[in-house]
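Two quick folds needed for the group meeting slides. Do the first one here.
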Amino acid sequence: MKGLRKIIIWTIMPIALELVGLLYIDQFYLNAETTFNAMKVDTTVKKEANKINVKVSEDGKNIGVSYSGNYISYYEDGVIKVVDTSNNKKKEIKIDDNAKFSSYKWLPDRDIMLIAEKYNDGHNSNYLKFESYNAKKDEKNFLSNDKNKELKISLADDKYEVLDMALSTATNVTYVKVGKEGAKSRIYRINVMAQVEETKYVNCKLGKIAVANKEDKLIYEDTTYNRIRIAGNTNPIATGENATHYLLASDNEDRVYVGNGGNGKVKKIFIGDVKTGKQEWKILTLEHETSKNNIYITTNGKIYINNPSMNVVTELETGKETKYDGTLVQVYNLGVVSNDKGKLIGNLF
């Protein structure tokens, strides 16, 4: 009997081991929904947006908001002040002693700003230099090429300023509009290697500029001939035959937004891709004619209309309203920022 029991045990053991092995392979190695003894991490949970409540004096100018609302910035007393909205800690970006502040702009999808500073070498030579500031790391660096030579843009005289900047983070290209009263503006293209070249455009009075994020194409407003153009293209992408066209914005997907109306007001918005013909553009008709300055378009393509008399911003597609106090300062990807008696207040959409 004992011998028979041993035979049965030794017969069953290898079978059992084989079954355990097959079970392991089936449940852990081949199964796409393998369960491990580890803590589950929910990657769908997004970081809660910061509550913006920042004091700013009457002397604070050039107020800006980073794309996510993590940082508020403004220019005051010769420095750019940057406030971390998560804790209201303030840092100061000092302008070089030999320079004057000209302009700055936040990148459309990163907590990094580009700063333009104007220099005079004392021999009647004027030029611009650019610094990038990483707010998260609190680091500032001059734009320079692979040989560590700092980028400079020459100016005809000290009256010229940076009027606008259009930034593409997909191609790491920046377009800089430089000009002064009574003179034709110039546009310079800065590439990822910190090399600069002047961009040609038709002989016209230059209005607002934008950039096709993925295509690296400069889009600009020709206010002389009432056209919206792409640099290098013969034909305009929009012509206002019976009304005035206004370049409103471009988004991360290379869609262009053109306002149609007159006297600075917009009744229709044309939306199209830089590659498509005008016949394929989408047309949105606004319920009420509104100032072009009250139209805000985020980098993800959402259109918001500000009604300053009602202190409310409305998303055009859904009709969802966001109220605010004081005067609207800016619309960013997650909400609005307003100035209410010296306090910059944020309200989420």
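Then this one, please, same format:
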Amino acid sequence: MAVRARQFQTYVEQPTVVQPKQTIIKQPKKKRITAKEKVLYIAFIVVVSILAVTILHKQSSIQQSTMEIQTIQSEISEISKQNVDLKVKVAELSRYDRIMKKAKALGLTLNEKNVKVVPGE
């Protein structure tokens, strides 16, 4: 038994060095973007840019139309003011006493047989 004890002691005394095995795990390479995805991304970007340009074009045409409408409305308001002023001037110039003064200045006389009454507006 002593022999076995020595063998056991010597076996225990000599530690076995176990080197850890290095496991190399190869990870599969990932493709970042596939060719089909690239085509889809490019098509999406093209569609979005076309829509953006279309929207900007429509907005500019709407703004231009709005500006034209505003200028036309300002012209209409100016013309309507001129019309009101002209109506006041017509009413002022068509007064009876002013017409009589002009007629007498031109040497015309009033003949009541030739006068016809016209209903006023």
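Slide caption for protein two: The longest helix spans residues 35-93.
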